[in-house]
Amino acid sequence: NPLQPGFVFLLSRAGHEVYDFRHPAPGNDGFKWSDIDPQWQDWTAEQLREALAHPVAETGFDLDKAGMDWADACVLLLPCGRSAHLEAGYMAGQGKLVVPYLPGKEEPELMYKLLGPIATTFPEVLAAVTA
Q1: DSSP state of 89
Q2: What are the backbone dihedrals phi and psi of residue 4, each rounded to the nearest 5 degrees, phi first?
C-alpha cells in the first residue's frame, strides 16, 4: 500500500511505537521474495514450500512474528494483501485490537465484523488505538 510509509510516520508522530515491516530492524529493508530468487513469481507450489525454509524467509518471518507478538494493536491499512489479512487474523486470535482502516472505497468484506471498529479517517484510527 503506497500509504503505508506516511501512515507509519503519522502514528509515530502521534506518540505510538510502530512496527514497520518495511524497516523491521536498523539496516533491514524488510523481507522480499526476490531476495531468495529473482524469478519468485514463476515458482511452483513445491518451490514456494522449499523457499519458506530458506534462511532469508526464516529471518523475515521471525521479525514480523516478533512484531505481531510485541504489538498491542494492529491497523489493517486497506487496500492490502493476503499476508496483512493473515497477520490481522493472527492478532485478533491473540485477543488484540485490530482496526480495519478504509481510507477510500474498498470491496465489502463481511468478516471485518470479527475485528475492531472500522475506521475511515486517521482521527478514527487514533481514537481506536488510544482508547
Answers
A1: H
A2: -55, -50
Angle between helices 55-70 and 82-93 (to 10 degrees): 40
Q: Which residues contact 84 (CB under 8 A, 6 or more apart)?
A: 76, 77
The dihedrals phi and psi of 43, each to the nearest 5 degrees, come to -65, 150
pLDDT tens-digit readout, 3-33: 999 999 999 999 999 999 999 999 999 999 9
Say which DSSP state 106 is in.
-
d(CA 14, CA 25): 21
Whether 117 and 99 have beta carbons less than 8 Å apart is answered as yes
| Measured CA distances, 126 to 44, 62, 75, 99, 120 (Å) | 42, 28, 10, 10, 11
pLDDT digits (tens, 9 = 90+) for 20-77: 999 999 999 999 999 999 999 999 999 999 999 999 999 999 999 999 999 999 999 9
Task: Measure Cα distances from 23 to 6, 39, 110 in Å.
Answer: 13, 23, 31
Q: How far is CA 87 from the centre of its chain?
A: 6
